[in-house]
Amino acid sequence: MFYQTKIRHLTKAKNIGKLYITILFILTFLLILFNKTDYFVVNKIKSLSTGVLSPVSGFITSPIKAVTQAVNKINEIRFLQQDNLKLKEEVKRLKKWHILAIKNQRENNAYKKLLNSTTNNINIVKTTTIISQTPDIYAKSIFIKAGMNHGVFEDFAVINERGLVGKVVSSSDNNSRVLLINDQNSSVPVTTMSKKFNAVIKGTADGKYLISSFVKDEKKPKIGDVLLTSGNARVFSSGILVGKVIKISEDGFLALPYVDFNNLEFVQVINIK
Length: 273
Fold this sequence. Notes:
Elements: H1 2-117, E1 122-133, E2 141-144, E3 157-159, E4 164-171, E5 176-180, E6 188-192, E7 198-203, E8 210-215, E9 226-229, E10 241-248, E11 253-257, E12 266-272
Antiparallel strand pairs: 1-2, 1-12, 2-5, 3-4, 3-12, 4-5, 6-7, 6-9, 7-8, 8-11, 9-10, 10-11
């Protein structure tokens, strides 16, 4: 009886051991399967999240990117505008310097010509610029930037690099009015290079020419003769270029002035020594 009971217990223990081994095997298999399944599920979730979240994140971030690009573009345009303004200011500054350089060069050239045009019997009082020119067709005169403070007085002659311009008819402290020789009220004693002919000339009505108002001994010049100041009236120094004879008539002659009265810029006030 004892042995039967013992054998029964051993058989039962063996059966339980086999059951444990089977259960352990099944659990091991399930763990391996779950591990593989878990890896597959995780990868699936990852790929799914990547496929879903990427477009969503792209859609969400696209306005931010657009705004950022727009802000960068605006900043670039603003910087370009600032650079453009700086360049414009630089161009304006360079233009001013260029105009000033041209003006100075013109002044220097004019002064050189004026110095070369003077003779030994001329006393230069003041080299100056033109302030304005009268538009009145009945009075041809200019205003110069020189007056009594500069030693300029009435009846002083005015010349430029081409020849005789006129004479001072009135002076203030710093400005003077000059009657041009192409005015009808002017009176300039002239002669020719040979000094065998003497006359007095004045301006025509339109101011383009010089016409004789008096001819001494009724002598007439020749076409092409150069007219110079004779110095007879002691107002204009002798030997200053006045004009060139272009026409002879019974009443006198017509001359073309050497000075271009439409483009006067720089003049010299002179006086007889």
